[in-house]
Amino acid sequence: MGNEWREATLGEFVRLQRGHDLTAEERKPGDYPVMGSAGPNGTHGEFIAHGPGVVIGRSGASMGKVHFTPHDYWPHNTCLYVTDFLGKDPRFVFYLLGLLDLAAYNSGSAQPSLNRNYIYTKPVRFPLPAEQRAIAHILGTLDDKIELNRKQNETLEAMARALFKAWFVDFEPVRAKMEGRWQRGQSLPGLPAHLYGLFPDPLVESELGEIPEGWRFFAFNDLAQQGKGSVNPGHTPEDIFTHYSLPAFDAARAPVIELGRAIKSNKTPVPDASVLISKLNPHIPRTWHVGKAGENAVCSTEFIVWTPKASANSAFLFCLATSQEFNSAMRQLVTGTSNSHQRVKPEQIGGIEVFASSEKAIETASEIVREPMEQVLQNRMQSQTLVQLRDTLLPKLISGELRVPDAMLAECC
After folding, report:
1. How many domains does the chain fold into?
2. Which of 12, 64, 109, 294 can bridge 103 by disulfide, Cβ–Cβ 3.0-4.6 Å?
3. Which residue, of 110, 126, 142, is where some domain finishes?
4. pLDDT for 266
């Protein structure tokens, strides 16, 4: 089947065009994604390009990065976008362009940028449409499952955080009892009848505002123990480490598995069932629910390691640490004037008080949020496996080193 592949220039493979200006003032409410240099960048009430679409970052840190959308969209002027696939499968085009290292094709200007005519000369090699569709189906199935896991995790985490806020910040169960909306023996959404006795029915004044009678405000360090210690992976260069870093969190919340010699500075040990809270720039919240930490697990010293104590578990700590109230308190504690170098001290994090409860209510809530948060961890582990499989198959399929069997070609196409 080798002679079924074609060679051409990028300009013969697809047609590209620079995106279109769209200021914040010009944006209208709507559901059409705005696709820019770094991918989706909000929505707009109008679209210019029909989906499925492929865009390429044109400048800045995302220059050369390739993004895909299945929807009609507005291509922003920070990107180039495909205006004509010339009969190629759009998703195959997305995967092929992503392997071309287009960032290396700087047009030579003082400000790095991609020039359409400059990259049009790059040679490409591709199969016939049937095999394009089969390759896109294989890789797309993996990406679709990864995206499904991501969306499910967003929902599960939001549900767990909503329970925390309702119980311990807004005191919704207490208010429901006080207003007669929740009667003994009755179940409400999210409030089964057997939990009725867990909540008092009057609210009383405290130094920090109204709280349920018999409850008190808890500081974060009432429930969490700060992990300390230091590890220098470079001292054991051939050992394998599970490295929790800020870039890894930002990329996919997946730690990097690497040899000690690749890790250049001291790190903090990460035990199982810990929660990592970044002390750097709290206006960009970074809270990592670790679960099973992995072999020789370490993290950047920009993360503070916390493990649960008393009646809480790590799922409850995560809900607390990712609450809007907790993040607002962190932002008020920052030191440093530069937005890129603002930090919060660990002892300040431990002293944050943003919720009231009883020990029994914390214990009960911890058990309730355990299951959805464990599902999040399982989904994340599955996605990591799928990413590794996709990244292994991608260059082999796109280059033709690994061919799609004829039976699969017939089934997919």
Report:
1. 2
2. 64
3. 126
4. 95
